[in-house]
Design brief:
Distance between the termini: 25 Å
Number of strands: 5
Radius of gyration: 13 Å
Shape: globular
CATH topology: Transcription Regulator spoIIAA
Number of helices: 5
Order of helices and strands: EEHEHEHHEH
Length: 120
């Protein structure tokens, strides 16, 4: 993990390797690290969210994202979601609506996150 200044925002960038953040303990540890870092935006690789995250019916996405949002963090999910979204209309809708918000974004990488932060 590292904190990067991107377009004037402190972004806590999680590393791709590490415990699955769908695990309550790992998610709580991340929240503690976020508070310690001073960053309000967490960039989380899709791989860290576990295989059930893109299957909305499991509730994993809702649980993880809501817990972070409840602590007033912004979240950028990093990675190519096109393959999993291609097979799920609800997931495509969720991604589209999330990307319209100011709280949760799905972006390819940190460069795309910078574009989102600069462009609004």
């Amino acid at each position: 993990m590292a904190v990067h200044m991107i377009a004037g925002h402190a972004v806590f960038a999680c590393v791709e390797e590490g415990p699955c953040l769908a695990d309550d303990r790992a998610l709580s540890d991340l929240i503690g690290e976020l508070f310690s870092s001073g960053a309000r935006l967490a960039a989380i690789p899709l791989a860290r969210l576990g295989p059930d995250f893109p299957r909305l019916s499991t509730g994993v996405a809702g649980y993880v994202l809501q817990k972070l949002v409840n602590y007033r963090f912004q979240i950028a999910v990093l990675g190519d979601v096109s393959a999993v979204a291609a097979n799920s209309e609800p997931l495509r809708d969720f991604i589209r609506e999330s990307n319209r918000s100011k709280t949760v974004w799905f972006v390819e990488d940190l460069a795309a996150l910078e574009g989102k932060l600069v462009g609004g």
